[in-house]
Write a structure and sequence with these properties.
This protein has 163 residues and is mainly β. 6% of the residues lie in helices and 48% in strands.
Length: 163
């Protein structure tokens, strides 16, 4: 199901004395965070004044956060993006948890977890049996978040309790 907000990272510290926050990005590429004009932190909406990448993190300047103390008060908080600001074709792992998975016309269960590996992600599907399905085009035939449905192609060995 599509979420209203997507968790994009965590504010880990401050940067300088003018209220910049250092954000540890949870996105595939920290530069993605720089594409947004607004975010939400602790349920409060903020306008992004500037954002730049520094190594694996982002330096984020928010409207109304103008001192080191104000930025320090946000430390440990999660930065959320508005889903409506993100390309509709992009699917996030958090949106896949709970999606019902079908092999042909048969429901094999729901995605309980998304595991990230260097080559690709793996969807853990729980039903009568547990399946581990690589998140690649060969096996994921279609995904419809509005209908909460994913169509997959199963191969021998994907069911974890098979011999």
């Amino acid at each position: 199901m599509k979420l209203q907000f997507i968790e994009a990272g965590e504010i880990v510290t401050t940067h300088g004395v003018r209220g910049e926050c250092k954000v540890l990005s949870w996105l595939d590429d920290p530069a993605m965070l720089c594409e947004f004009d607004r975010c939400r932190i602790g349920g409060k909406a903020y306008t992004v004044e500037s954002c730049r990448v520094q190594k694996t993190c982002n330096l984020l300047k928010l409207s109304g956060v103008d001192t080191m103390e104000a930025a320090q008060a946000l430390r440990g908080r999660v930065v959320e993006l508005y889903r409506e600001d993100i390309d509709g074709d992009v699917i996030f792992a958090a949106e896949l948890v709970g999606v019902e998975v079908f092999a042909g016309e048969e429901s094999i269960g729901k995605i309980s977890e998304v595991l990230d590996y260097p080559g690709n992600s793996v969807y853990v599907v729980q039903g009568d049996h547990e399946y581990m399905i690589p998140a690649v085009k060969q096996f994921i035939l279609s995904t419809d978040l509005e209908a909460n449905r994913m169509q997959v192609k199963l191969l021998e060995g994907m069911r974890t309790d098979e011999n």
